[in-house]
UniProtKB/TrEMBL annotation:
It holds the Pfam family MMR_HSR1. One of its GO terms (molecular function) is metal ion binding. Signal peptide: none annotated. This is Probable GTP-binding protein EngB.
C-alpha cells in the first residue's frame, strides 16, 4: 500500500548527468538501478512508475553515457545508471563511465540502496559481479532484482535462484533478499515499490 502511494505520485525526468558537478543537490534520498544493457532496466523503471516511455526504451552504446535522475513527488530520486557490458563500447567511453560511476557511488551520501538487475534467464555474469564488488568497496547496500521472470521455466527457477544467491553470498554489501520481477507481467513490481517506500 505504501508503495502504491509513493508511486501514484507524479514521476518526472529531471536531468541526465555526465559529471559529478551536474548531480542534483542531495536534498532527498535516492535509489539507483544498475544492470547489463538489455537486462530490462528501462522496462522496470517504466513499470515501477507506471509511466511508459519515461526511461529510454533502449540504450545504444553510441549514446552519451548519462546518469538519469527521475523525481517522484515526496519520494526518493530514482537514478538510472547507464547499462554496462556492451561488447563493442569504445575503451575510452567505458573508462569515462567507470570513473563517473565510482565517484557517484562512493560520494553520494543520500544514496540508500542500489538495485542490481539480473536477467533471470542468465543469472549473475562476470560484469554483474564487478559492479557488485564496486558497490562493496563503496559501501552501498545493494539488492538483486531478477528481471524477465516470465521467460524462465518453472523447473529452471530454483537453479537460477541458487546461482544468484551463491554469487550474492560473496558480497558483503548484498542485501540477502532477492526480488523476482517481470515488467511484462507486473510480477514483483508492487514488492519493489514497497521496498523503496520503506527506505529513509
Ligand atoms: P535496458 O537496455 O536494460 O533498458 O532493457 P529494456 O527495458 O530496453 O528491455 C530490453 C528488452 O527486453 C526489450 O526487448 C524488452 O521488451 C524486453 N523485456 C524487458 N522486460 C521484460 C520482461 O519482464 N519480460 C520479457 N519477456 N521481456 C522483457
Amino acid at each position: 500500500e505504501a508503495g502504491r502511494l509513493l508511486f501514484a505520485a507524479e514521476t518526472d525526468f529531471l536531468k541526465g548527468v555526465v559529471a559529478m558537478d551536474g548531480l542534483p543537490a542531495p536534498d532527498r534520498i535516492e535509489v539507483c538501478f544498475a544492470g547489463r544493457s538489455n537486462v530490462g532496466k528501462s522496462s522496470l523503471i517504466n513499470a515501477l512508475t507506471g509511466r511508459k516511455g519515461l526511461a529510454r526504451a533502449s540504450n545504444t552504446p553510441g549514446r552519451t553515457q548519462e546518469i538519469n535522475f527521475f523525481t517522484t513527488t515526496d519520494g526518493p530520486y530514482l537514478v538510472d545508471l547507464p547499462g554496462y557490458g556492451y561488447a563493442n563500447a569504445p575503451v575510452k567511453v567505458v573508462e569515462k563511465w567507470q570513473r563517473l560511476l565510482k565517484s557517484y557511488l562512493s560520494g553520494r551520501q543520500n544514496l540508500r540502496r542500489a538495485f542490481v538487475l539480473i536477467d533471470a534467464r542468465h543469472g549473475v555474469k562476470p560484469v554483474d559481479d564487478e559492479i557488485m564488488s564496486l558497490l562493496d568497496q563503496s559501501a552501498v547496500t545493494f539488492q538483486a532484482v531478477l528481471t524477465k521472470a516470465d521467460k524462465v521455466k518453472e523447473k529452471d527457477r530454483e537453479n537460477i535462484l541458487a546461482q544468484v544467491r551463491g554469487a550474492l553470498s560473496k558480497h558483503p554489501a548484498a542485501f540477502p533478499e532477492l526480488v523476482l520481477t517481470s515488467s511484462d507481467k507486473g510480477l514483483g513490481i508492487e514488492t519493489l515499490r514497497a521496498i523503496i517506500a520503506t527506505l529513509d
